[in-house]
Structure formats: structure tokens, C-alpha cells
Write a structure and sequence with these properties.
The complex is a heterodimer of chains A (207) and B (178). Chain A has 207 residues and is of the alpha+beta class. Chain A contains three helices and eleven strands. Classes of the chains: A alpha+beta (207), B alpha+beta (178). Chains A and B meet through helix 2, helix 3, strand 5 and strand 10 of A and helix 1, strand 4, strand 5 and strand 8 of B.
Chain lengths: 207, 178
């Protein structure tokens, strides 16, 4: 046998093993990352959409992505006799909400119903602000006109009126909870809910 | 001959696909420690334990005071009693993984005072007899272990005060008397 082959032969399996390990690790990482992204994304949900809001349901799930998403939320959702939970991670133009941008939540809220609007990141973490202001409720939000429309701004720079600071958030999600047992059977329509519009991503020159 | 690099790439995609499917399917079963099971309820002594973003990752409404009471096969059904605040409140019985099994809200009760038995259906009659009570609200569940989650609206200063007072007066004890 040629002397160089004797030297080279043991190297080939080692390289193959190394390549196998690298490919396996890369595959696992890619699989985990894609699963994390898919579970965090609303586009795989069969949740009912109302305008830009998606109605959450922590009950029995047949869609594995919804089941995983509910598990990732850690529970705590509302049961049918408590009310309904709506979330949005996009603005009125269907662009993903960005924690670096400012937004205005404006429009009507279902009347005669206790509601709360909460600002968080996509994993439910609340913003860090000294006032511990994480959102507004039907009892403390200012309302305008006879239809009691709300105008709540969200962003880093303080704005006049109802305002929630998004300090410390890396992503953005708005959760609107409506506490009424009748709403589970008869959810509000899109024109009974507020919309989320961008005020710009440069805090200084927002419109 | 298929390029070796392409074969390795296809192999990587296969591994990624299997990992993706496995992770999504296994997530619900392995996330239960992230709900309320990590909350220490051992020192509760008949009181409910407050839960918030400091001791649970459960996605709870921060405008509410949330508190839990654990029940399991050892404790049997739990009896939740006390005066509820005039503001909105609700009670949910949940399985260990945070799935809601039954709920009760202010609209379901005529009285401001609550007396509620929560537990597996088969054990509720025994608990009712043991406690010597005929008329009591019940939540019949298909499980032995889980949590009772009480939500009390505390969205303003007055509401928070009333909710805190109500929460401190609520009792959650095993219904079966030794």
C-alpha cells in the first residue's frame, strides 16, 4: 500500500463524523428557531380575526401551533364566561408592530363592558416604566365624542393624553380584554374596535 | 452523481424538519412548569397566593389582582369562601398546564359572598357531606390536580384597595374535614 494512503485513511472518517455532527447541530438549531418563530407568529393560527385583532382562545386546540402558543403563554387566558381576549401584533396597514415606533390606538370600544388594553412584548413581558402604567381600562381611559372613542398613544417619547411608555420592550403586542360573558358568543365587529396606526418611528418627528 | 454538498444540505433540512415538528408537538407537554406550577403555595395556610409577572410567566391581565390556590389528589376538593369586591371579578379552575376547565364570574352569582367547592366531580359529593353543607356553588372538574385562579379588577386606586381587602379575606382550604 502507498504510504500516503495509510496516513490519509483515518482522517476521512473523522472529517465525515465532524461534518455529520455539524449538519445535525445546524439542523436542530434551524428546526428550533423555525418552531420558535412559527409558534410566535399569528399567521399559523386559525384564530378568528376581527379587523386587525385576533381572538385568542386557550381552550382545547386542534392546531398544534395554537396549542404550543397557548402553552408558551403559560395559561391565564380568559374562559368563555369571563370574556374574550383580542391581540394584535400588526398596525392598520398590516405591518408588524415595532417597539421602536410610536402608535395611536384610536376608535370605539364596546360600550357597557369592562375592557382593559395592555401593552407588552410578544412573550407577554410588560414595559418597564416608573408609573407601572401597562395600559388603560374602561375606567381610566379618556373618551371622546358621544361614541366614547379612545385615543391612546404608545411609544418611547411621552405624548399628551393617554400614553403608555414602551421602555424595555424588544417587540410589541397589544392585548384587548373584554370582560363580559355574552361577548364569547357574540364578539364585537371590526368597526366596534379601535385601530392601531403608526405615528412614525422617529419619535421626534411623529405626526 | 448528486453533489455531496446538496446531500448534506438535504440531510440538514430533514433534521430541521423533524426538530421543528417535535418541538411544536412537545411544547404543550413541557411548558407546564412555566404556568403556575412554579409558584410556591406551600406557605399559603388557607390563603390565596398572589401571582403576577414576578412569579409566573402566565399571561395575566396587569389591571387585575390575580391569586391562585392549588388543589391535588392529596388535598381533595378545595372550598373557596369569602366576600368578593363590588368591582368585576372572576374565578377560573385550571389544569396544571394552564388550560381553563371551568369559570365563574360576578354575573353568575347573586350574592357578594362566595362559597365554592372546586374539585373532581366524584369527590365533590363526599366533600359536601363531609363539610355538612347542602347548598353550595360547585365547579366539577375532570381532573384531580390544578389551580383555582381568582381575578379581581384593580384598575384604579379605589379598585385596587377593594381588591386587596377582598383578597386578604378570601380563604381556600381543603373541603374534606379530617
Amino acid at each position: 500500500m502507498h504510504p500516503t494512503r495509510l496516513l490519509a485513511d483515518p482522517v476521512v472518517p473523522v472529517l465525515s463524523i465532524l461534518r455529520f455532527i455539524l449538519i445535525t447541530l445546524a439542523g436542530i438549531l434551524l428546526g428550533l428557531a423555525s418552531a420558535w418563530w412559527a409558534v410566535g407568529s399569528l399567521r399559523f393560527d386559525s384564530a378568528r380575526s376581527i379587523g386587525q385583532w385576533s381572538m385568542l382562545d386557550d381552550g382545547a386546540k386542534t392546531n398544534p401551533y395554537e396549542a404550543a402558543r397557548a402553552a408558551r403563554r403559560g395559561g391565564g387566558g380568559l374562559g368563555p364566561s369571563e370574556g374574550i381576549e383580542l391581540i394584535t401584533e400588526v398596525d392598520a396597514d398590516n405591518k408588524p408592530l415595532d417597539a421602536a415606533c410610536a402608535y395611536l390606538v384610536a376608535g370605539p370600544m364596546p360600550q357597557g363592558v369592562l375592557w382593559t388594553l395592555t401593552v407588552s412584548d410578544r412573550d407577554g413581558r410588560l414595559p418597564r416604566n416608573p408609573a407601572r402604567r401597562f395600559g388603560f381600562t374602561s375606567l381610566d381611559a379618556m373618551t371622546f365624542e358621544s361614541t366614547r372613542q379612545v385615543r391612546i398613544s404608545i411609544g418611547h417619547a411621552v405624548r399628551p393624553g393617554d400614553f403608555v411608555a414602551t421602555s424595555g420592550l424588544s417587540s410589541l403586542r397589544l392585548t384587548l380584554r373584554l370582560y363580559s360573558p355574552t361577548l364569547a358568543a357574540r364578539a364585537p365587529s371590526g368597526d366596534q374596535l379601535p385601530s392601531v396606526t403608526s405615528l412614525g418611528c422617529q419619535e421626534g418627528d411623529a405626526s | 452523481m448528486i453533489d455531496t454538498g446538496l446531500r448534506w444540505f438535504a440531510a440538514m433540512l430533514c433534521v430541521a424538519g423533524l426538530t421543528h415538528i417535535g418541538a411544536v408537538l412537545l411544547a404543550p407537554g413541557h411548558s407546564r412548569d412555566l404556568a403556575f406550577t412554579g409558584v410556591d403555595t406551600t406557605a399559603a395556610d388557607g390563603k390565596l397566593v398572589r401571582v403576577d409577572d414576578g412569579n409566573t410567566v402566565a399571561d395575566l391581565d396587569p389591571a387585575f389582582l390575580n391569586a391562585i390556590c392549588r388543589f391535588d389528589a392529596d388535598t381533595g376538593p378545595m372550598r373557596l369562601s369569602g366576600a368578593m369586591p363590588g368591582t368585576y371579578w372572576s374565578i377560573a379552575a385550571m389544569s396544571d398546564d394552564g388550560r381553563i376547565l371551568a369559570t365563574l364570574s360576578r354575573e353568575d352569582l347573586r350574592s357578594a359572598h362566595i362559597d365554592l367547592l372546586v374539585g373532581r366531580t366524584a369527590a365533590l359529593d363526599a366533600a359536601r357531606q363531609s363539610a355538612g353543607i347542602d347548598s353550595i356553588e360547585t365547579m366539577s372538574l375532570p381532573v384531580d390536580t390544578g389551580f383555582v385562579l381568582v381575578r379581581l379588577f384593580a384598575g384604579d386606586l379605589d379598585g385596587r384597595g377593594r381588591a386587596e381587602t377582598a383578597l386578604s379575606g378570601l380563604e381556600c382550604r381543603p373541603a374534606l374535614v379530617d
